[in-house]
Amino acid sequence: MKRESHLPELFKHYLNGGWETGATVGLSLNPSDLDEPVGEYARADARQTDAAIDAASAAFPEWSRSSGMRRAEALDAIGGELLARRAELGRLLAREEGKTLPEAIAEVTRAGHFFRFYAGEALRIGGAHRSWARPNVDIDITREPLGVIGVVTPWSFPLAIPASKIAPALAFGNCVVFKPAERVPACAWALADIVSRSGLPAGVFNLVLGSGRQAGARIVANPLVQGVSFAGSAATATAVREAAAARETRVQFDIGGKNPLVVLNDADLDTAVDAAIDGAYFSAGQRATASSRLIVEAGIHDRFVDAMLARLATLDVDHALKKGVDIGPLADEAQLRKSLDTIATGRKEGAQLLHGGVPLERATRGFFMQPALLAGTPEMRIAREEIFGPVAVVIRADDAAHALHLANETPRALCAGICTRSLQRATHFRRYSQSALVTVNLPTTGVDHHVPFDNTDFYTTTKTAYMAS
């Protein structure tokens, strides 16, 4: 097995301030080169997961009473090291998850920005003072940390998504047990390695590697965990919701969706194609906000499709670390098979395959696939179910009103986009789109670190104190 010199022989758990091996060992593959795996990792069982939760619970009283400055300094140190090492960590991310190197470096940068932003938020935890109707009584309203937070994250963004959850949890005074997807243990270990040098007390942050059935399920079931922040598939989210509800535990979900991009007749064609190519195919389409449902008004439909086909023919699919590559491999064999099966199902339903949709052979053995474009209708499964691969379907809309209707009846749209040169139509779409996240003349995308999200409400409880003055 080839190894990069700075990586350990085994990616271990980080429990109560120390590194531990696990009950069993797994292997992290490199989806660009199956003959060059990333490395072996420890796999935790329920007992080891409980030990991590116990450590976090024991550390909570001290950390929850720590000053905002202490928390800010630790988070700033984590963010600073992520940013300083973005090229090195981006290379690791590209090897393990399959993003192209520029995309991987951008993700590490975003993770660093999350920690830096919440370093500031640790000093700005809100509160309020109120006067009551009775004389000589004051009311103070404060935000208090929740307790032990279980953070369970997917492989698609192995540093940015964990950062978006771990950083606010720590900033607001909670302790964390982090369980990443088994697909990306090296990235999780790299983050824990950085956290271990940030000055956090033992037990405040813990990493357990392993399966959702063992470690993940135990995090959700353990009564010492006061909140679970989960990102992943809708099917797993259902199981997490049921288990959390059984013991009335607070839970936060970030799950996948089917996202529409609307292209109106008056759109700038190059802008629309850029948005569609980026949103549908970059990161191999493996992101929850990927726009795999392209809704195009009739007057521009044929020109848009021709322009898409011309651009798709120029895209280079190859090893994630190869210079100039546009799209890397899919993350694993299951994702490749799912994308190919989805295309086959679409064709059986009558969708027309316009481009791609076949496995590719490259100099190294990997999960490479030619990006696929299909023409279909709104009711087809390929137009309604999340694909999580480099596959998009074009749907013809009669007019702008019909396009908005098709966008709004898209199941579980996390983000909806529109391409138009009309301020009036863009404003109308923003107002009447039923998606919580809307883009105009841009690819569908995730949220930035500084825009509204429910982190403060999720990671804290509100305490109201009445005081006689």
UniProtKB/TrEMBL annotation:
SUPFAM superfamilies for the chain: ALDH-like
GO function terms (MF aspect): oxidoreductase activity, acting on the aldehyde or oxo group of donors, NAD or NADP as acceptor
Keywords from the named record: Oxidoreductase
InterPro entries in alphabetical order: Ald_DH/histidinol_DH, Ald_DH_C, Ald_DH_N, Aldehyde_DH_dom
PANTHER family with a match to the protein in the record: ALDEHYDE DEHYDROGENASE-RELATED (PTHR11699)
UniProt-recorded name of the protein: Succinate semialdehyde dehydrogenase
Highest taxon of the lineage: Bacteria
Organism: Caballeronia telluris
Keyword Oxidoreductase: yes
Membrane-crossing residue ranges in chain numbering: none
Domain Aldehyde dehydrogenase: 29-453
